[in-house]
Write a structure and sequence with these properties.
The structure holds 2 protein chains of 2 kinds.
Chain A (H helix, E strand, L loop, with lengths): L1 H16 L6 H27 L4 H25 L4 H36 L8 H18 L6 H8 L15
Chain B lengths: L6 H75 L1 H17 L4 E10 L3 H10 L13 H11 L3 E6 L2 E3 L5 E4 L2 E4 L2 E3 L3 E7 L1 H9 L2 H9 L4 E11 L19
Helix pairs in contact in B: 1-2
Classes of the chains: A mainly alpha, B alpha+beta.
Chain lengths: ~170, ~250
Amino acid sequence: MWLPVLGLIFGIALGLLSTVAIPVAFAKYLSIAVLASLDSLLGGWRAILEDHFDAPILLSGFLTNAFVAALLAYVGDILGLDLYLAAVVAFGLRIFSNIGFIRRFLIYRFRCKHQLKAAGSEKITLNDNEYDQQLNKEAAQYAKQNREEDIPTYHFIKNNSTPPLPADEPKTKD
Amino acid sequence: MWQNLKQPTIIFTILAVAVGFMLTVAFNSLAPYNTAESVNNEYKTLTDFIIDLEEKNAATEYEIVHLRNKITSVQNEQANEEGLLLALQKKLNEIALAAGYVDASGAGLVISLDDNTAAALVAQKNSPETYKAENFIIHDSDLLYILKALSPYTESAAINGQRIIDTSHIRCVGTVIMINSVRLAPPYIISVIGNPEALNTALQSSGTFLYLTQKKDMPVTVSISDNIILPASGSSFMLTYTQAVQTTE
């Protein structure tokens, strides 16, 4: 997960080094677009954790959300309505909910690994991605049993404090 | 690390670069706007600063007057006991009175000058194209010329409670007149202690007074008073470079 962080820093450095500056009149719309893209970025991270990452959906969401948010702000300015607030509120809420999910997920994974380690399980040798895949598989099963079809991992993590992976399940690694 | 790299991570990284870039471009573009706001704030701070300094100035002037009175009373107390000091103290009090460092009272002339707002309104209504606001207000020069005309007979003077001493200055700053760095508003009351008859004659024959009363028809009132009270000057005056000439015999 270090590469995206490096990418973010690289992007910021690129922006600081370049002298690209758009007119102040449009800077407001760019700010809204930045908010929308930030939301897409966090949504992408969440999708990676939930193991249903879909590149076309993420990319199209990134572009469409940013564009529509800026357009909404522009139309709001024409009509004399503060429509940009709609985008700010919507994306603000989504950013917080995504951050909340990511936070819960990371803490949950940490706890599970800790418990597995304490139990001396072989699953400790899994890397984070492989472990997440296992976790999501278990979560989907759990959701199916409990008729929780919408965002299974989130509900699973929310309702369970114990690791879903039994410590004694053997895992062979080639 | 690289062999573990999957499609999601690569796309995610590209998005992160884009978001970082957009973030800084938005920041760069809004930077001048933010600076303009901070400049406004700076002006506000400067205004507060000036008001603060003016308050401090007034407090310090009050303290100076208070301390001078204290010194005078202590000196008077001591002088009462000793004969030689008494004469010296009397001389000192006279000099302080002449210099304007103590409250003064006496007979004299009180002149009130006000802006001609009524005529200004009429002129503005009847001939707006030739209307000039400055023709209907009292200027700093008017006050200076009147003081100058009265000066041969003036012993002490004050305008709107500001004692006029050697170092006093009268100037206009925008739309207000400042005397001793204090902003004053019309009407301007010039109180002068001196021979009332002589002062009145000097005033009535001064060009500025005639111009203001007869040509411009300003609301001017003149009254002779038996008991004018002038406040002490709050200005401090110190000789830093001037020295008495040493006389060798």
